[in-house]
Sequence to fold (261 residues):
Amino acid sequence: MLRALTHVISPRLSDCELTFIKREPIDWQLAESQHQAYCQMLRRLGLRVDRLTQNSQYPDACFVEDTAVVLDEIAILCCPGAPSRRPETALIAQALAPWRQVKTLRLPATLDGGDVLLVGKTLLVGESTRTNQLGIQALAELTAPFGYRVVMLKPQGSLHLKSVCTALDDQTLIVIPGCLEQGSLEKLNQEKFKLIETALNEDAAANVLRVGEMLCVQAGCPETLAQIQKLGYRTEVIDTRELAKAEGALTCLSLIFRTPD
Ligand code: CIR
Fold:
């Protein structure tokens, strides 16, 4: 079965890390109800959803994606680029231990899961303000024995690779125009990915959460949604826009992986 590890919203959410956006008031109740709706959607899609609570003292605890990279064969516990987020990983290590062998990245390597996009057996990894070359190299070394290949990309103007680029399927990526360096676009072309661009003012649609055959798309992105649907994908629309004020996207709210039960 597919399992989603999530974490409830911290009462301190408004003290979250912010890098590329300005702080504005966050309606905690609204954020909480959007988080609950997100978990409900995952349940509706057939996932078993675990909602952890023990990291609630950390403002960014709900953004669990950044704490680990979970593959079928192994889990890599990240060393998040933001020091305030590093204590979050201990709980995630415990939660993953029943399901995967857990390998841990350590400083000076840094890596946020939000920079790691799995497409088939390829890991597209963003070198960002959070993820450094040592982190990318360590990820490559830990995953190579299982047949994974790492391709390094450079996102620009955004927190994580997955804020600007995610996969619609193993051959097709959705990207915000202008948010990957030219060299990265060339690499993606060489790798034969088909690139779909988000519509104007719909950047949030670049972060699509893929759950099996279903693509979950952020609310408020009608043109991009129509484009995705026209290509024949099945879609669900979900609204987590209050969490976007904490610079969080859809994918960052869960770690999704297969377990035997
Ligand atoms: C942070 O800056 O770390 C959080 N405020 C937001 C993290 C969002 N993570 C993600 O999109 N993967």
In short: The chain has seven helices and 15 strands. The first helix runs from residue 28 to 44.
